[in-house]
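Lab notebook, bench 4. Still working through the backlog of constructs that have no structural model yet. Next entry is a single chain of 365 residues. Request: give me the structure tokens for it.
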Amino acid sequence: MKKALVLVGGGRAHVEVLRQLAVKPLTDIDIALFDPSPSVWQSGMLPGVIAGHYAANDAKVNLWALCQRARVRFFEAPILAVNGENQRIESGFGERHRFDILSLDIGGVTKALPTAPGAYVVSTRPIEPLLSAITEFESVRSAALIVRVIGGGATAVEIALALAWRWRDAKNRRVSIVCDALLLSEFPPAARRLALRACQRHGVTVRENSPVRQIDPTRLRLENGNLIDTQLTILATGYSPRPLLEKSVLTKTDEGCVAVDAQLQCLRLPGVFAAGDCADIAGLKVPKASVFTDRQGALLAANLLAALQGHPLLSYQHSPRALRFLTLGDRRALVTRGNLVLAGGWAWNMKDARERKWLRRYSFE
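Model written out:
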């Protein structure tokens, strides 16, 4: 019987695994990938899709086509359960599949907040409901529209500024950010100053140190008792694990991520690997950003093959000084490397070039 490698999730690390398999297919191993979507987003381009700089289809990689090239069976289905000890998974179709090696790259969802019935709330993860909500509100609301983005990280800033740029000619649409601490508190102070300046330039109001207790149909209830009007509320409140991880018997961190070693193996089950946002490497604090997921992808591909062949595994080498980009609504961006922060149109052009190169790499253009 052939050894079986099962990939759960079409995240960026698994996309790199598929690319390497497409370059050098493995004919003696049965490989399958499970994901409920036939395509994967270039996540760095999503604010540009919202702002109108890119068409939605231009920011995706065809996951099914990539699997075909890699000679990997693709199942357009979610996975409901993982049994690492018995080496089985259960798909959304009720089927059970055996594996010798399992790899998880399923990302996560956005942290929820208490929400009253009737409130219109969408999250930034997954992205499709957010894009649909934006289009729906544009089509049915010609009067004033109040949008509140809850969160203080890079995602909240990028989404709010993208919406402000998208609606730059609409005087009756207001976008604001509500965060429970300081904006971009995990970034260098210069990044925060530049982001606040961009918000002021585009008419995005920022309300800091204002944690939200509950979302009602027409207002936000803050912890201090204040009320803020809202019509569309967007959650950019950080990572939360998918239900699959909550139900799986795997070693998990306090955030609910799979706890892995430097070789990206689950601490409790050596035959199970995990990468990307759904994994935390023991002893390292790796931000949940695509630049670090991409670096894990090449290592994951090498270690999955090594595990199947009984060869030694390689270790992840973290580089905290990697370039990180944050778009500023228009065709400008800021870029950070360590404590160095720069911004301008050239940064957006650099980011755009890198993301288009990523798409070409996985579309085999």
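Notes after review: The radius of gyration is 21 Å. The mean pLDDT is 91. Flag for follow-up if needed.
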